[in-house]
Amino acid sequence: MQTSQNHHPLRVGVVGVSWAGQRAIEAFQAQPNVEVVAIADPDETRTSAVTTKYQIPYAYADYNDLVTRDDIDIVSVATPNFLHAPVALAALQNGKHVLTEKPMAGSLAEAEAMVQAAISAGRVLRVVFNHRQRGDVQVLKRYAETGALGRIYHAKGTWMRRSGIPGLGGWFTDKAKSGGGPLIDLGVHMLDMALHLMDEPEVTTVSAATYDEVASRGVGAWEGSRRLAQGSHFDVEDLATAFIRFQDGSTLLLEASWAIYGRSWDDFGVTLYGSEGGAEIKVVNYSYEDTLRIFTDTAGAPSVIAPRVTKGEGHIGVVREFLAIIHSGEWSAHVGREGLRRTQIIDACYRSAVEGREIALADLASQI
Ligand SMILES: NC(=O)c1ccc[n+]([C@@H]2O[C@H](COP(=O)([O-])OP(=O)(O)OC[C@H]3O[C@@H](n4cnc5c(N)ncnc54)[C@H](O)[C@@H]3O)[C@@H](O)[C@H]2O)c1
Question: Which of 17, 63, 79 to mutate to test the pocket of ligand 1 (most atoms within 8 A of CB)?
């Protein structure tokens, strides 16, 4: 066991300080005995606004200046996807613990390199899966753990946007920078939620298809002030669908879209089918109320339970768990393997879509 560094406040640097980076700053600042001491982002207008808003002493344009500071214990990464690996590697090599935004990396090879670096450095590496912290997910997780659903043999995870391409023409829609479209961006959240609720079954095969039927024509660019089009470059999918088989015989259907002619505006959810009961989380336009239904039998009659749930903690819960791991000193069990498993599955889905066949995870098995 390592000794934790909890004798002094843990000092944090955040790299990339747009929407996600600011959620990280707020989540670290919400914890006791933690200081956010530096940020790095080449956008000087943004760093200037963020240092003022959150009272952060140091700002850099180059993340190397942040990760080489001796007084920083933790680096939080919230850059575009293609920079997660280079920033995380630099931070780990400088002895920092790393919390990176989802998806873990833009490619499987990068995710493997990150895990290897965490092992070599003897530091914690963890990926932000904030939707798992929702109140409805936490209640359903506890319910499933009681065994009341029996064996969960099939599940669905979907995140469907009618019109929600994040910044058409920016890094999100450029495969070299993002690693993919809605599957790696939104689908990874639902994959995480389903695997978490199903108690991490081991994947054997995936079969997937991806489409670009509407988005590259500009249909489905995000409206209003959310994330406006910055151009027209689009070489990722606008819809992905995948069928995932697990070693225990259970299965998962995963679907994600940024742009589709369909009923959902921006809806996500998970459905679980168990041998003793079922459950559904359905989130419409990021709602937090009345999202969970549990299907059971009461005295032989089909019944529906609608638990009253709280909003949950999002990034604050992610950061609290991350800090608890650091304080525990049990770092070697937390070197990014959970994020790597999700990256392997997403990577296999994209391969399956390109090759038009089912892919066995064993064929991609990493040595890590
Ligand atoms: N967990 C969630 O709910 C959630 C939500 C949104 C985004 N994200 C993830 O967070 C990450 C960032 O997303 P975003 O929406 O904030 O993106 P964004 O494009 O709004 O912001 C990216 C920021 O990174 C900065 N950046 C670019 N190059 C950099 C470099 N070399 N060094 C430091 N900073 C650099 C940009 O200037 C910008 O400020 C992505 O990986 C995304 O998938 C997660």
Answer: 79
CB atoms within 10 A of CB 310: 12
User: pLDDT per residue over 201-225, tens digit each?
Assistant: 999 999 999 999 999 888 888 876 6
Cα(289) to centroid of ligand 1, in Å?
A: 28
Condensed to tens digits (0 to 9), the pLDDT of residues 84-111 reads 999 999 999 999 999 999 999 999 999 9
CATH of the domain at 273: 3.30.360.10
Percent of the chain at pLDDT > 70 equals 96
Residues 6+ apart with CB under 8 A from 146: none
Show the domain range for 193. 135-311+348-360
Look up the CATH number of the domain holding residue 103: 3.40.50.720
Q: Check if 172 has its Cβ closer than 6 Å to any atom of ligand 1.
A: no
Q: Please check the confidence at residue 226 and state whether its pLDDT lies above 90.
A: no
Identify whether residues 89 and 175 lie together within a single domain: no
Residues 152 and 202 in one domain: yes
Burial category of 207 from C-beta neighbours within 10 Å (exposed 0-12, middle 13-18, buried 19 and up): middle
